[in-house]
Specification:
Helix 6 runs parallel beside helix 8. The N and C termini lie far apart (42 Å). By secondary structure, the protein is α/β, with parallel strands linked by helices. The chain has one domain: Alpha-Beta Barrel (TIM Barrel), CATH 3.20.20. The structure holds erythose-4-phosphate. Erythose-4-phosphate binds next to strand 6 and helix 7.
């Protein structure tokens, strides 16, 4: 399972990248707005840090508009992927962009029928939004395991990308379901390293090591 960071914060991306375990980045307009910087400047800086896919959102209401926006954004760096809205127009844009070699990440997917349609359209990534769904019906786990089943049943090539994770239990559900990628906030990325018993055990070893004659 690959790990992406879901953020526009360049310093957070550097910290996660330094671990050697970061595989890519997802952003959205909210993340970019929080930086207070120009879209192009942030995206170019992120793509200079991370060699894996960096998803940025295309903002338009029509397939033609999305294709135009996506083509502009794709010129910023070779590792750009384009977030496409889960709409009729969005899924019309997906095969056009994928045929041009531009990877699409269909975003704001909240149901298994949406998952199926995004995969059928040929998206490289399908972003399943777990915690926002959990907030209304607590069915995030079902959605991600259905996405893995749909991919397998119909031999789709899309990557199941679990997004909007907030807890280690969300990560655990993704590991059990066998999703291809999780995208997580920085706090959750580093929380995954931690366990209280690890701290207790290592502290004891450090104390005992002091008493070993050297
Ligand atoms: C998904 O495509 C978004 O970038 C993001 O994962 C949404 O996450 P949030 O619910 O934490 O805002």
């Amino acid at each position: 399972m690959k790990i992406f960071l879901d953020t526009g914060d360049v310093e957070a991306i550097k910290r996660a990248h330094d671990t050697g375990l970061l595989d890519g980045i997802t952003t959205n307009p909210t993340h970019i707005a929080k930086t207070g910087r120009k879209f192009q400047d942030v995206v170019k800086e992120i793509c200079g840090i991370v060699s894996g896919p960096v998803s940025v959102e295309a903002m338009a209401d029509t397939a033609e508009g999305l294709v135009n926006e996506a083509q502009k954004a794709a010129q910023l760096a070779p590792n750009i992927a384009i977030k496409i809205p889960m709409t009729v127009e969005g899924l019309k844009a997906v095969p056009i962009l994928e045929d041009k070699g531009i990877k699409c990440n269909v975003t704001m997917v909240f149901s298994s029928t949406q998952t199926f349609l995004a995969m059928k359209a040929g998206a490289t990534f399908v972003s399943i939004v777990i915690s926002r769904l959990d907030a209304v019906c607590n069915e995030g786990d079902i959605l991600i395991s259905d996405a893995v089943t749909i991919k397998r049943n119909f031999n789709f090539s899309s990557n199941v990308l679990a997004a909007s994770l907030k807890t280690q239990n969300h990560v655990l559900s993704c590991l059990r379901a066998g999703v291809d990628i999780v995208t997580v906030p920085e706090f959750l990325f580093f929380q995954m390293y931690k366990h209280p018993l690890t701290d207790v055990g290592l502290a004891q070893f450090a104390r005992d090591w002091e008493s070993v004659p050297k």
